[in-house]
Amino acid sequence: MMALDTNVLVRYLTRDEPEEAARARSLIERSSVLVAKTVMLETEWVLRSAYRFGPSAIAESFTAFLGLPSVTIEDEPTVARALAWYAQGLDFADALHVASCEEAEAFATFDRRLRRRAGLVGTMAVIAP
């Protein structure tokens, strides 16, 4: 199994550098690959900030990528929960943070927007400290 860095996943998803995109595609098609949660987090940030992808385009790209038979995601149930919440309007980083802590009673944050949106998507309790 080969672990992927963010830049390989970005090349695969954006195809912006044809030679590197082809190499990324070839690697992913011929090998079993592992993607860390942190790589997913960084990839979302790169796609949103550098490539100006919207949340629905990112969620669709991630969902399609996660469905590939050669792809294994670190803590896949958590990433899947975070993606579902992201599709419902939660920031991806916030969704991944909260989904990663579901064994806790609550998630404490000063972020009012996170508390409000988490309540709308039905995550665990997200409270003010």
Note down, in words, how this protein is organized:
This protein is mainly alpha-helical. It has two domains: 1-74, Rossmann fold; 76-129, no CATH class. 60% of the residues lie in helices and 11% in strands. The protein is built from seven helices and five strands, in the order E-H-H-E-H-H-E-H-H-E-H-E. The strands form two sheets. A three-stranded parallel sheet has the order 1-2-3. A two-stranded parallel sheet has the order 4-5. The mean pLDDT is 93.
Structure summarized in a few sentences:
The protein has helices at about 5-15, 20-30, 35-50, 55-65, 75-85, 90-100, 110-120; strands spanning about 1-5, 35, 70-75, 105-110, 125. By secondary structure, the protein is mainly α. It has 2 domains: about 1-75, 5'-nuclease (Rossmann fold, 3-Layer(aba) Sandwich); about 75-129, no CATH class.
Q: What descriptive keywords fit this protein?
A:
129 residues, 5 strands, Rossmann fold, two-stranded parallel ribbon, three-stranded parallel β-sheet, single chain, mainly alpha, 2 domains, elongated
